[in-house]
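Researcher: I'd like a structural prediction for the single chain below. Treat it as a standalone chain; there are no partners to consider.
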Amino acid sequence: MLEKNRIFEILRDQNYWFKDVPHEEYIERKHYLGKMKELLHSRSITIVTGPRRAGKTVLLKQVISGMMSVGVDREQILYLNLEDYRLYSHHSLELLSVVLETYKENINPKKNIYFFIDEIQNIEGFEHFLRTEYDRDGKEKIKFIITGSNSKLLSKELGTLLTGRTSTVTVYSFSFGEYLQYHDVKLDMSSYFTLEQRKNEIKQLFNKYVAFGSIPEFLDETKPYDRLNEYLENIIFKDIVVRFNIRNTRLVKELAIFLATNTAKTYSINQLSKTFKCSVNTIQEYLFDLEQAYLFFYLKQYSYSYKEQVTTQSKAYCIDTGLASATGFQFSKNNGRLIENSVFIELKRRGHDIYYHKSAKTGVECDFLIKEGMHVTNAIQVTESLVNQDTRKREINGLLNAAQQYGLSAGLILTDNEYDDLMQGGINIQVRPIWFWMLCM
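Model: Treating it as a single chain, here is the predicted structure.
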């Protein structure tokens, strides 16, 4: 174990007790900062999770900077980055204890503490440390804010040990609004028609957003697909193969590539088992691992029967459309499914409970149902265009079927470029460009 004086040197480097926060041009992620601000006032352990490279560390730094700007004593803030190479060979529960002791002895012996721990999953059994400190009686209280990128933060053991003690914020890569901010595009959002003169500029950026994704670290890459493929390899190896002790690395990677190439298509466990010539149990296990590593989400068909929900076919959506493209998509041929993927991720980012609809009688489908509490509250179709009459009929019929089945008076169709309001079968249908809908929070 490192000596305390060495630990204090590292903590001085990582914290702002004796120096100002450097001014860096980061995008202010208001959606997440608002959530974090609310949670700072609760005693619960705040878990900041999400895919690698989505900006969790930057978010923590923005939170810390914001706290100091409103008068929180900087000596009450302890930040520990466990990715620091100087700590790598010393990862242990003892390290967390000694860090806390060293901080109290040198900086803050008596006041309440905000303890930020970045990439906490590097410490085996960290949940025991959190539980002990959370439940400890003492005059000073510790507010924990922790980050991590993989399944350890969602494990059954963590849930058991910390039941009722946690709140979670899931951070995704840039929304389209944040993407425009990154490119220094400022818009008058008072109405759709105020954007008319800049429509071509916005559409060009939206096409890049869908084609290359929005992982912050890769936005300035001249060859983004090369970096995205490296990103896929890293997640499969570090967050799946190593953590779950998987021997068949090739099968996990081939399954990931298959799902990315077939994003927004339905699949069944049995079909995948036959395709990859392996057991149903193996497929189920690897699908779970890919989801826990934030590579894919699975969308179930809505049913009032839970048994039907888990036995019907699901759809897979990739965490980032650029990642899906990088695995071998031919963009021009698959743009429709990529934009559907981008809508799904935006719905997840907004915190919705999502399903898809398929009529048992006619087989017509609606891409997304939004459920709030016990009720379906919205139905959404996604298509490139309604110009083709067969497409128009199919998309409208699917939306009407869902709206009528769930007692909705309105529905939404998102297209690449169309803006309209329709009344069909007593249902008010809004037709909106996807890029415009994404900017309307």
